[in-house]
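Exercise 7. Predict the structure of BPI fold containing family B member 1 from Sus scrofa.
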Amino acid sequence: MANPRIFTFLCGLLATHLVAATLCPPVVLRLGPEVIKEKLTQKLKDRDAVHVLQQLPLLDAMQESSQGVLARLVSSILKYITWLKVTSASILQLQVQPLPNGQELLVKIPLDMVAGLNTPLVKTIVELHMQVEVEAIIHVETSETGEDQLVLSNCSNTRGSLRISLLHKLSFLLNSIAEKVIKLLVPALPKVVKGELCPVLREAFEDVRADLLNLVKLPTSLKSDRLEFELLSQAIEGSAVQLNLGAKLLDSDGNVIMLFNDTVDSLNLPPLSDVPFSLIVRKDVVNAAVVAFLPPEELMVLLDYVLPELAHRLKLSIKAISEKAADKLEPTQIVKILTQDTPEFLVDQGNAKVAQLIVLEVFPTNEDRRPLFTLGIEATSEAQFYTEDDRLMLNLYDLSSDRIHLMNSDIGLFNPELLKDIITEILISVLLPNENGKLRSGIPVSMVKALGYETASWSLIKDALVVTPASS
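Solution. The predicted structure, encoded as tokens:
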């Protein structure tokens, strides 16, 4: 077996080649206007906002908003009105758009309503078509405890959005009454809509915010370990709500193995462009996820039985170094592969690799306790991501032995590069299938389905992995 001090030296040697830039914060979830709009629309439905509109106290509002001459007009009109109520209402498509300061979002909610007016003069119901738009601002506000949080404020009516008209022309008398009612509704309707709908809108946004906070808490299963996120800060950047997240890796007992919570304003985020949301995961967090699937392990292979062609070629390669050593190899020869420490995930624009420290030992027979030689190998594999539904999959291929070090030898000193080709083929044939088998379960990206999307897509930027919903 290799000396532990040699392992330490080898780890330090490889580490000098794996230094890369660190991006902060660890994880960023960016939600575009489409996501906010859909979430808020659904919460308004859950809060039955349409029912609130149908219960608007129009007559009371007319009376409360009238003064002086208008008050006398209301009194004169009310004696001709049996009832006045909203008979149908709908909330049209919401709009969420950034404000010029880049730190606030404007929410516009267009309303379309029909009110029925009845008078004892005739049995015909007079219908009024009413259109008004409510708007509010989403911004980040610092609470009393010093925490930043998303809030919705400044709920009001959009100037110039009010439209009230008679749906059907009736008799001169009814038209005259309707026109007077419309005149009274012009100042009354915006006030009553603001008073009745704005509280519901604020409650709906609180529901959205609570959903988002619960969303970031969804754990990601990594075989026996799990990755959990926590909210570090939140902001509005341009058209996106940005949630900066910390991360921690926990074992099956809930003990924290690794913690990622450093945050610096230097993360170069990709533009949100046309995607509804993006999840940007820093390289070291991705590496922790990969490590959870590929812990250090030991593989022992009876090479002559499993891969006889490679066993024959290995014997020929050793024979070129020492015929005496090659003659010791028997059909029960064993190749032992030990993966050391943890792999290192290297990501750059458009491509990724996994670097590993590997110790390989060759034993002449299955009864030998001392290897012919021990090699320390710095290997890298190409890493290919792909997606299956909302799961992020990783496959390793094209392994290369970048550096080979002779750590121990019972056959004298030799140049380990002489064995590079055969050693690389053994690793490709033995180690890679084993590791890909462990990676086969994939990493569930629960945020994808939680935000209403079925499949995920991925891309690589410098030192980070970006997950977005797949285009249909």
